[in-house]
Amino acid sequence: MTTIASDEVLAYDEAVQRFDPVLGLEVHVELSTRTKMFCGCSTVFGAEPNTQVCPVCLGLPGALPVVNAAAVESAIRIGLALGCTITPWGASRARTTSTPTCRRTSRRRSTTSRSRSTATSTSCSTTAGSYRVDIERAHMEEDTGKSLHVGGATGRIHGADHSLVDYNRAGIPLIEIVTRPFEGAGDRTPEVARAYVAALRDLLRALGVSDVRMEQGSLRCDANVSLRPRAATPQEQAQVPFGTRTETKNVNSLRSVERAVRYEICRQAARLSAGGSIVQETRHWQEGAGLTTSGRPKSDADDYRYFPEPDLVPVAPDAAEVERLRATLPEAPPLRRRRLQDAWGFSDLEMRDLVNAGATEARRADRRRRGVAGSGPQVVVRRA
Ligand code: ADP
Ligand code: ZN
After folding, report:
1. Widest CA span of the chain, in angstroms?
2. Mean pLDDT in the chain?
3. Which of 177, 179, 200, 245 has most ligand 1 atoms within 8 Å of its beta carbon, as the pocket-test mutant?
């Protein structure tokens, strides 16, 4: 039973003095392919519910899925841009899910890229400097339907009068990008979480694989947070085992990512300080109240009963194909910014205004539209 009764929280400064936060981020990005992962249904956002569906994306028994080649290409380009190794043989697995209204085969997934070296990372900058966040893996999935719980106080299934399900989103190709546990940023951890998602969003936008609209759910973040007792030195800290984590699901703005991580640090710190323990579970970010509420218990041993998908051949890109896709990668956004800044002779502050105004993006989009390679800024925002 979920209520928006707030948990005890410790003041942030005290929390990070007593505990060292560890972070793990799972980002889901919907690809902007014209059609879905395994069928020809449209992926356009905002249509009347259940008007862009067919037996395949409804997961009906006997429907035959066919892989969308454009989605596989995007998946490989994302893996390459993150510095991952592309798996030469990615078998697909599926699982059967039950919603209040139907039982369906869904969440087919196949790993397309996996990091094998610590060079696989995204660097992101915060006001306190740059951090490197290591990537564990990226894999392909299909999105699920979207439920709307009607009635009840929380908008969640508990206490609702009835639920509605829209399957327009089901089957849209999705890439999940998972980080390794990130440690060592101390009180800056919430900022790093935000900066990482922002850096990833920039990269995905530069790749042109997604419209990365967090407010429309095409980029969503699950934030894993745990705490461990603070040690005297970084060396000693590294010896302290990780604590139990919670996973706050579907956080859908940069600001909320930072706030949710910060809140979890304060909540877990209060519990641990009072001699309690952390329950490994999913949690939900409540934007209005600015807190997380308990979801479902989630153990590492949870068995989703994925089974080999008999109707899909493995995704097995050959080396030449991977190299062809590597040649299509754009310049990495941070490098691009640095290069433009040098070429235009802007200060850091001027460049920040320019980036905030979306000028470097606008210029890229404009060039793409006109099919020309111009030089020099189209829009300049200068601090007065
Ligand atoms: P699952 O696939 O069951 O969600 P994973 O082991 O893939 O779990 O981890 C999910 C995310 O949680 C990853 O980003 C990982 O780095 C992170 N993570 C794992 N253990 C911890 C921990 N103790 N504290 C914080 N983050 C963690
Ligand atoms: Zn369909």
Report:
1. 65
2. 83
3. 245
